[in-house]
Model the fold of this input.
Amino acid sequence: MRRHQIDWADLRSKAFSQARGAQKPADTYGAIESALQALGDRHSTFWKPEQAKETLKASIASFEPPQGRALKNGIGYLSLTAVDGSQKTYDAYVRQGRDAATKADGAGACGWVVDLRRETGGGMWPVLAVAGPILGDGTAGMFVDADGRKFVWSIKDGAPYLDGKPQAGGAGRPLGRGRPPVAVLTGRQTASAGEAVVVAFRGRPDTRFFGERTQGVPTGNVPHRLSDGAMIILTEVKDADRTGRTYEAAIAPDEEVVKDPRPAARHQDAVLDAAQNWLLEQGACRRR
Done:
């Protein structure tokens, strides 16, 4: 992602100096980690073979299902969580997430809360497949590489596409009410793929963001497996919203609200309360 900003001669010199005398792949790990840190993108990382194996196994094994429910005054609530792993895992996530959205929609939600505070990263496409009907059809965002090339995300019939190619889920069930107002909740754990979903909602009409700044890695990674099973997870693109604005740092909400961390307040959620209050002021949800 930052290849035009890197002094490659200096980076190569330092990496090869650190790896001097290496006899086996493991002898290069320190140099690889130092080189990735020197890129300065804060998202690229390195997994040793055992770590790569365990991480991939864990991501395939399970995920925390998305949750949906109907709130008071006709508002739908959808909490989208992180997911990663195999196509089978993604399919299960989409199925459970869409069931949760249908439950929350009820007879037709007047507005929506989309909670991304537990969306810590992984695969973005299954999450967009669940959020797609709420986002609405059309351009939702894009990846932008170091040369300025754009790879467009779009929604069609509630399903996500990348440059016109379907990515996950197939057509989604339409909402009871089209183009509702949406309140998006973010927090410090909202990261990577979670931030991509945040970006997809940026620029959407009748949409407002509540909570705290995101983690600050709204960029796209690509895994590269090495000869011994180690993996370089390399940041190669920035996220951009539907207007073309790019992101590579923490994304601030429109309205900053911090959830009270004290045990006595564990049943309170000031972020969700602020989102509901705003939605109830919108024409679709206002009670006359």
